[in-house]
C-alpha cells in the first residue's frame, strides 16, 4: 500500500468521523436550544490551524537548514582531509610526494571546475571524480614505506584518504532534494487552508485589513520558497559552496 493511499484513507476517515459526530450531535439538540449561548469557534479554529501550520513550517525550515549545514560540513571535511594528505606526504621521497600532491590537485580542480556544476544540475557525482580520488588512494596505499618515519605517516595518510572518500559520498547523498513529496503535499495544502481561512473572518475592503491579508499570504509564500531553496543543498540560490576547497587549495581556480 502506497503512502499516498494511506494518507488519503487517514484524511478521509478523520473527516468522516468528525462529520458523523457533528450530525449525530445536531440530531440530539432540542427545539429550545439557543445557539447564541454557544461560543463562536471559528476564530478559535482559525487560530489553532495557524499555530499548527506555523509549527510544521518551522520544523520543515529547520530540517532543510540542517541538511544544508550537513552538506557544507561534508565539503569542509573533504577539503581538510585532502589538505592533510598533501601535508603528511612531505615525509615521502620527492617522486612519491609530488605524485600524490599532483593527483590531489587534479581531483580538487575537477571537483571545483566540473563536478560542482554536475551536482547542481543533475544531483549526482561524476565518474571522473571517482577515478581521480581512486588514483589518490592508490598513490597512498601502493607505496611501501622504507623508513620508520615513513611507516608512521602511512596509516594516517590512509585514514585521511578514507575520510575524504566518506565525505565525498556524503556530498553525493546530499546533492539532491531531501524533502519527501508527501511533506510538500502537506505544506502546500496547509498553506491553502491557512490562507483560505482568512475569508471566514469577514474581512472587509479597508486598506488595513487588505494589507494584513496580503502580507500574511506573502509571508507564507516566502517561507515555502525558503524551504524549496534550502531543499537542494548544492543546486539552488542559498546553497553549499566550494569555498572550503578554494580556501584550502588557493592555487585552484573556481
Describe how the helices and strands are arranged:
Layout: H1 3-27, H2 42-88, H3 94-122, H4 127-141, H5 148-173, H6 181-196, H7 207-230, H8 243-248
Quick gist of this model?
Helices cover 74% and strands 0% of the residues. By secondary structure, it is mainly alpha-helical. The chain is elongated, with a radius of gyration of 29 Å.
Overview of the molecule:
The structure is a single chain. This protein has 254 residues and is mainly α. The protein has one domain (3-20, 41-248). The protein contains 8 helices and no strands. Helix 3 (94-122) runs antiparallel to helix 4. It is elongated and about 100 Å long.
Overall pLDDT metric:
83
Count up the domains. Answer: 1
What order do the helices and strands follow?
Answer: HHHHHHHH
Multimer state: single chain
How many whole angstroms does the radius of gyration measure? 29 Å
The description of the largest β-sheet is: none
Shape: elongated
Counting DSSP E segments of at least 2 residues, the number of strands comes to 0
Percentage of residues in DSSP E strands: under 5%
Structural class: mainly alpha
CA(first)-CA(last) distance? 47 Å
Ranges where pLDDT stays below 50 over 5 or more residues in a row are none
**Fraction of residues in H or I helices:** over 70%
Q: What is the count of DSSP helices, taking H or I runs of 4+ residues? A: 8
InterPro entries: DUF4239
Keywords: Membrane, Transmembrane, Transmembrane helix
Protein name: DUF4239 domain-containing protein
Amino acid at each position: 500500500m502506497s503512502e499516498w493511499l494511506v494518507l488519503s484513507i487517514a484524511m478521509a476517515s478523520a473527516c468522516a468521523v468528525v462529520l458523523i459526530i457533528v450530525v449525530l450531535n445536531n440530531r440530539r439538540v432540542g427545539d429550545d436550544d439557543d445557539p447564541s449561548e454557544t461560543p463562536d469557534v471559528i476564530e478559535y479554529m482559525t487560530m489553532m490551524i495557524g499555530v499548527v501550520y506555523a509549527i510544521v513550517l518551522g520544523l520543515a525550515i529547520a530540517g532543510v537548514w540542517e541538511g544544508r549545514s550537513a552538506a557544507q560540513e561534508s565539503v569542509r571535511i573533504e577539503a581538510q582531509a585532502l589538505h592533510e594528505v598533501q601535508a603528511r606526504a612531505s615525509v615521502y621521497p620527492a617522486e612519491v610526494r609530488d605524485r600524490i600532491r599532483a593527483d590531489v590537485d587534479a581531483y580538487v580542480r575537477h571537483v571545483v571546475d566540473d563536478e560542482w556544476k554536475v551536482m547542481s544540475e543533475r544531483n549526482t557525482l561524476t565518474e571522473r571524480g571517482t577515478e581521480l580520488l581512486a588514483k589518490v588512494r592508490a598513490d597512498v596505499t601502493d607505496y611501501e614505506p622504507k623508513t620508520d618515519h615513513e611507516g608512521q605517516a602511512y596509516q594516517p595518510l590512509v585514514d585521511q584518504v578514507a575520510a575524504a572518500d566518506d565525505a565525498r559520498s556524503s556530498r553525493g547523498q546530499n546533492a539532491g532534494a531531501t524533502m519527501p513529496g508527501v511533506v510538500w503535499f502537506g505544506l502546500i495544502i496547509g498553506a491553502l487552508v491557512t490562507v483560505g481561512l482568512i475569508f471566514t473572518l469577514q474581512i472587509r475592503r479597508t486598506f488595513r485589513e487588505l494589507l494584513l491579508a496580503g502580507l500574511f499570504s506573502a509571508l507564507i509564500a516566502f517561507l515555502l520558497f525558503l524551504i524549496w531553496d534550502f531543499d537542494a543543498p548544492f543546486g539552488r540560490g542559498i546553497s553549499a559552496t566550494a569555498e572550503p576547497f578554494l580556501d584550502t587549495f588557493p592555487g585552484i581556480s573556481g
